[in-house]
TrEMBL record, chains A, B:
Keyword presence, Cell division: no
Domain FAD-binding PCMH-type: 36-216
InterPro entries: FAD-bd_oxidored_4_C, FAD-bd_PCMH, FAD-bd_PCMH-like_sf, FAD-bd_PCMH_sub2, FAD-linked_Oxase-like_C, FAD-linked_OxidoTrans_Type4, Oxid_FAD_bind_N, Vanillyl_alc_oxidase_C-sub2
Pfam families, sorted: FAD-oxidase_C (PF02913), FAD_binding_4 (PF01565)
Keywords, alphabetical: FAD, Flavoprotein, Oxidoreductase
Species assigned in the record: Hydrogenimonas cancrithermarum
Protein name: FAD-binding protein
Cofactors that this protein relies on: FAD
């Protein structure tokens, strides 16, 4: 796809030192968190928007595929060059926080800025950028926007899209587009920023992002509720959310997950419990914190909670969070291969969803530990199998497909925050009609008529 | 454009009683709040989504223009059939609240539901739908979504788009599209709901909307600050918003507006004041209310506030709000014709914006009273002229164009909440490059290749 002439052309745009096509670099840029591998034909490091524009114009003319990449920490292969071509690596040069505007409570960043670096920079000024995907220590804002990343705080503070005010991006032909403003209200023209969010780099390459910031709440408190069954815990979740208080986080672990963490870390967790809920509330006044905790405790108790533990300090809070933070790594005791999905349903059907996942696990004879962000209906569902056994793998994938079907039947979505990418592309037909897929194709064609941007993603 | 054969075809879809083409109805559906007039060739009242689909399929085949219409209360001609064709009137049959889902805090409505009817229905259940455009007593949710309506509470609670979780819509060819879910997180497929919001009925006809609801705060309190100058008031606005507390509303009136209301209603308003700010805070606890009021009072006082009045009860609150609520009708004392725009800038440049509007008013020798939603940078700018004097009208329009230029120069937008429609279409080139307009055209073509949906709007 790419020959020496193309490599030379790319070097004239960005300089020799910013184009690689040696084997070592091709391997280094061939993977993401899915552990699948696709080697690109070249890796290019644009220095600025003008570079991105020049590269896209050239690649569009020569029909060369371009895959934008941040940290490569995605769970669905969004940054993998499935059809070869160029990986456009934005983390090397385009990683500056351009502005933290205190007066308007806005940050302007390049796509390669790491989420946690932004959080720290704004918190140093008393401001707050809430979206906190589990990958926050290494994932980039560009990647977060492209997948519309969620996180623990979404129940109260929403997700990445709720903070994107404006985007600058480059279309395949090289045109630079400014979408949105540093204003809360803006209804002039189509909502281009809105459609670029979660578009997985298939429509344009994002070169600058303007993010809304909020004031950092002064106080926070953690509590944990222990429940006899998943059903009762799930009822407590949606009834809490409907009570009028909105906790920052409302995370859950099922019995399999609790037992896995306990087996690995011996923390004295309640291994007989059906489920644990861990919740954070925040605010500026002690009275607000107390009020929210009282309401949550009451709703939990009304829904079968056996024990309600409130952290008295930061240390106790970290203790309560320990099980949740170590859930993902602990469940590997159930199988060497984890087929993990991030299905999301309306909160009120969480009890039914978990019941039916349990039923799938029984029928397929696989363990399916679940945990996650139940405050917004987002459940991390992990089908654990022996990765060296092809039969087990097949069973695992069948179980996952059935869980997807159940999710869609319950009014839920294939992905709450990880995206579609390559991993979930085969399941898009479960969630969308042919007419809906046609609309996606029409939009893709409108932005990228030659299909050079991240081809093959999202079943397009 | 439409002949007897077309009328007969439409009647077979929706029944004789739901198709009008008599003069009286054509006049009744020829206007909106702009007072401009364009008569359609027919008015059709679809009974349901299947009707909308049949009508669109037929009109697409026969290249007949379709203009979706809610209450016709828009300020920019969005619902006017500028190129003739059919007005698709959604307020008659498709006006049901389909569901208020207490467990998931979601409402599902048809597009013709009136904003205030929805607010009342959800408040009766202890829930809250915050977007409150000034037209809330008659404008429809479908119209609100199509223009992305704002309102008084946007500073704290955001605008219509922040509450849209899912949309069902029909494409010109008749295809029915479901976009979004009853879930906070959903990243499967492109954000179709996102791009339909504010698209002014140019991409698809919305047939059902799923809206996020929140818990209704229990307490509210109002205060007013009197300032020596607009500049000091504007500084107080953005410094309050950056202080960490977020008032529900932060409304402003300039001296011309204050004097107009006083002249009309004799309420004892401070006619020597440069500006008034009126603010509401809300919460669930008295301590929260007091804390917010203390911070606002402090910031106001630090920025030259001459008097800070706190309402002690509902009656005093209504008193403080009186001037703002009657601003729009009062300023007509300055001229029979009001050329009003809803420009929006980043809050920190509000002082400069108002200074420069003042300068425009002096140079063109017109009065330009301003008031509005300064908490989100949205200023209602009213160039007042004698409507019977063509010369005055011309001057007025030149002044407005200059104000648009200043707004864009300051990083602002042509429209915060009214939309582009017909009225602002001539100014789109001030805000967007040709490349950006081309992207809008590409998107329009992707959704509506035959350009039958609301043609001529948004400069498309």
């Amino acid at each position: 796809m790419i020959d020496a002439k193309h490599i030379e052309a790319l070097k004239t745009f960005v300089g020799n030192e910013n184009v690689y096509h040696d084997k070592a670099h091709m391997i280094a840029y061939s993977y993401d968190a899915t552990r699948e591998r696709y080697e690109p034909d070249a890796v290019v490091f644009p220095r600025d928007e003008a570079d991105v524009s020049a590269i896209l114009r050239y690649c569009n003319e020569h029909r060369i595929s371009i895959v934008p990449r941040g940290a490569g920490s995605g769970f669905t292969g969004g940054a993998l060059p499935a059809k070869g071509g160029i990986v456009l690596a934005l983390e090397k040069h385009m990683n500056k926080i351009l502005e933290i505007d205190m007066d308007n409570m806005v940050a302007v960043v390049q796509p390669g800025v790491i989420n946690m670096d932004l959080q720290k920079a704004v918190e140093a000024k008393g401001l707050f950028y809430p979206p906190d995907p589990a990958s926050q220590e290494y994932s980039t804002i560009g990647g977060n926007v492209s997948e519309n990343a969620g996180g623990m705080r979404a129940a109260k503070y929403g997700i990445t899209k709720d903070y994107v005010m404006a985007i600058r991006a480059v279309r395949p032909g090289g045109d630079i587009i400014r979408a949105g403003k540093k204003t809360i209200k803006d209804v002039a023209g189509y909502n281009i920023a809105g459609i670029l969010i979660a578009s997985e780099g298939t429509l344009a390459v994002i070169t600058e992002i303007t993010l809304k910031l909020i004031a950092k709440p002064k106080l926070k408190k953690t509590a944990m509720g222990i429940f006899p069954s998943v059903e009762r815990a799930m009822e407590a979740v949606y009834k809490t959310m409907a009570s009028g208080v909105t906790p920052v986080a409302m995370e859950f672990l099922d019995n399999l997950t609790i037992r896995a963490v306990e087996e690995k870390f011996h923390k004295g967790l309640p291994t007989e419990a059906g489920a644990i809920l861990i919740t954070d509330v925040d605010g500026n006044l002690p009275e607000e914190i107390d009020y929210q905790m009282e309401v949550i405790e009451r709703v939990f108790m009304e829904n079968g909670c056996m024990e309600f533990k409130k952290a008295r300090n930061e240390e106790e809070s970290a203790d309560l969070w320990f099980a949740r933070r170590n859930a993902s790594q602990s469940i590997t005791i159930y199988g060497s291969k984890k087929i993990n999905e991030d299905i999301t349903v309306p909160r009120s059907v969480l009890p039914e969803l978990l019941r039916r996942i349990d039923d799938v696990a029984l029928r397929y004879k696989v363990k399916v530990p679940c945990f996650g962000h139940t405050g917004d209906g987002n459940v991390h569902t992990n089908v654990m199998v022996d990765g060296s056994d092809p039969k087990q793998l097949e069973i695992g994938h069948k179980a996952i497909e059935e869980i997807f079907r159940i999710t869609v039947e319950l009014g839920g979505t294939l992905s709450g925050e990880h995206g579609i990418g390559l991993s979930k592309a085969p399941f898009m037909h479960l969630a969308f009609t042919e007419e809906e897929m046609n609309l996606f194709r029409d939009i893709k064609r409108a932005f990228d008529p030659n299909n050079i941007l991240n081809p093959g993603k999202m079943a397009l």
